[in-house]
Write a structure and sequence with these properties.
This protein is an alpha+beta fold and 504 residues long. The chain has 15 helices and 21 strands. The strands form five sheets. Strands 14, 15, 16, 17, 18, 19, 20 and 21 form an eight-stranded antiparallel sheet that branches. A five-stranded antiparallel sheet has the order 7-8-12-10-11. A four-stranded mixed sheet has the order 3-4-6-5. Helix 9 packs across helix 12.
């Protein structure tokens, strides 16, 4: 009898649901009812023209998706709109929290059909130039669209578009398999992979994008496409280095490689008074290092007059018997202040650079690729390098070379296959403090460094980079990228990136 009563009640509920007048009810996925929506919502297009979003259109969008739509004032809106760098305090007109590819399609259709609504895509929210958020446009928030599936026998991983690097490292390493990823585990996979993907294993197995074997994407037309070497090869070429220019990647198929879980990792640090020696040694050793050795340069001046350091962050993932030989050149300067290179779990090492409270600090960064460490570059990096009040000043160089440089410059859209390192300088400050002293200093500092650089990493895109800068940065690949843009996003719906301007 109890089961029968339950069946009747559930049947009655289903009948009432069918009979209910569409679209009223909690159509905005628990955020508010249709009747509580404002009549109109003011927004802007990608061309910065005003556009009015009709209430009924938003209701219709809500009915098409499983995720949530958030408007200003809704529970969850304030958290969803934030990205890692709180210096970018922007307020989208609406946020679509997608749970799958169908939600992404619906959101893209809505943005396109509303006169090309300004569109940002947020994965991990690590964009240095704030491109994963926007004012008065739409944010597609992929934080609810995460998951990794590993097939160990095929040595493949399938990664949902909003996933974070740490999820992939965790799942793949459980099977003794890895693929090159970045160095902060809460970075979003989508932005990292489509722009490049440097990391501790890239010299051995290439950039993250070099290990992509296929992608599923939603394009500006709202089409769901699979791109690979066999299907839509032009799109497959462009998305590996062209960033978010062509659509939203909803799934990556990645090649995995066998590796022991324990690697050698840690830091070798010297007093900053020896910075010139450290940088000169780095230039020599990094150029000749075996593929299994990743060496990142570090130079730090803390505030308050404390002594700074210069040295190396190291990861060695090769045969243990060859480790001492590989690391010996880094110790030519004699006894170090700190020498903590030791056996460590790779997944733990990947988490070692994470920030537990990343939104507590604002930051500003300048960066560029270098082909070597000439005396002139070393002088430009060391001489004006100074501490700043309240927070440290940091110079960082991420090692390239190895397998990265053995890929042809036109094999993917990423062209910088001849560089030795990506050099970054950044200053952080307590959120809420006046950033001007830090930003002005970095800009002046970088004016002396930039003549020694050879382009920039698109994942480190700055707001000051012009269309001409982006065109030059893609080198001979730019013309081909324009052709891909013309085919898949001729109206430039996806423009908050290192933007390739269509000509169609």
């Amino acid at each position: 009898m109890v089961k029968r009563r339950s069946f009747i009640r559930s049947g009655l509920a289903a009948a009432l649901a069918v009979a209910a007048p569409y679209p009223y009810g909690q159509v905005l996925a628990g955020t508010r009812s249709a009747s509580s929506l404002p009549t109109d919502i003011q927004a802007i297009t990608g061309e910065r023209q005003n556009v009015t979003l009709r209430r009924q259109d938003i209701v219709d969008l809500a009915a098409r998706i499983r995720g949530r739509i958030l408007l200003a004032g809704d529970d969850g809106y304030e958290e969803a709109r934030q990205i890692i760098n709180p210096s970018f305090d922007r307020r989208p007109a609406l946020i679509v929290q997608a749970t799958g590819a169908a939600d992404v399609q619906a959101a893209v259709d809505f943005a396109r059909d509303n006169q090309g609504l300004l569109l940002a895509v947020k994965c991990g929210g690590h964009s240095l130039s704030g491109k994963s958020t926007c004012d008065q446009g739409m944010m597609i928030d992929l934080s609810g669209f995460r998951g990794v599936r590993v097939e160990p026998h095929a040595r493949r991983a399938w990664v949902a578009g909003g996933s974070l690097l740490g999820q992939l490292d965790h799942e793949s390493m459980a099977h003794g398999l890895v693929t090159p990823m970045g160095t902060v585990s809460h970075t979003g996979a989508g932005g990292l992979i489509t722009g490049g993907g440097f990391g501790r294993l890239a010299r051995r197995w290439g950039l993250s994008l070099d290990n992509v074997r296929g992608v599923d994407m939603v394009t500006a037309a709202g089409s769901f496409l699979h791109a690979s070497a066999e299907a839509h090869p032009d799109l497959f070429w462009g998305v590996r280095g062209g960033g978010g220019n062509f659509g939203v990647v909803t799934s990556f198929e990645l090649e995995l490689h066998p590796m022991e879980r324990q690697v050698l990792g840690g830091a070798i640090l010297y007093p900053i008074a020896r910075a010139r020696e450290v940088l000169a040694l780095y230039g020599e050793v990094a150029a000749e290092a075996p593929d299994e050795l990743q060496i990142d340069l570090l130079m730090v001046r803390p505030p308050g007059g404390a002594e700074g350091v210069a040295g190396f962050n190291v990861c060695y993932c090769g045969a243990p018997a060859q480790a001492d030989r590989a690391l010996a050149p880094l110790r030519q300067l004699g006894a170090a202040m700190v020498d903590r290179v030791q056996g460590v779990d790779y997944v733990a090492l990947q988490r070692s650079g994470d920030s537990s409270d990343p939104r507590a600090e604002g930051s500003y960064t300048k960066g560029g690729f270098v082909e070597g460490f000439s005396p002139a570059l070393i002088d430009a990096l060391v001489t004006p390098f100074e501490a700043h009040p309240a927070r440290s000043t940091v110079l960082f160089a991420q090692h390239s070379g190895g397998a990265i440089n053995r890929v042809a410059a036109d094999a993917t859209a990423f062209p910088q296959r001849d560089v030795m390192a990506n050099v970054l300088c950044f200053v952080n400050w307590r959120h809420g403090d006046d950033p001007s002293v830090h930003v002005d200093w970095i800009k002046a500092y970088w004016d002396g460094v930039e003549p020694h650089t050879a382009g920039f990493y698109v994942n480190d895109l700055e707001e000051t980079h012009s269309t001409a800068d982006i065109r030059a940065n893609y080198r001979r690949n730019h013309e081909r990228l324009v052709a891909v843009k013309n085919r898949y996003d001729s109206r430039n719906l996806f423009r908050l990136n290192a933007n390739i301007l269509p000509t169609a």
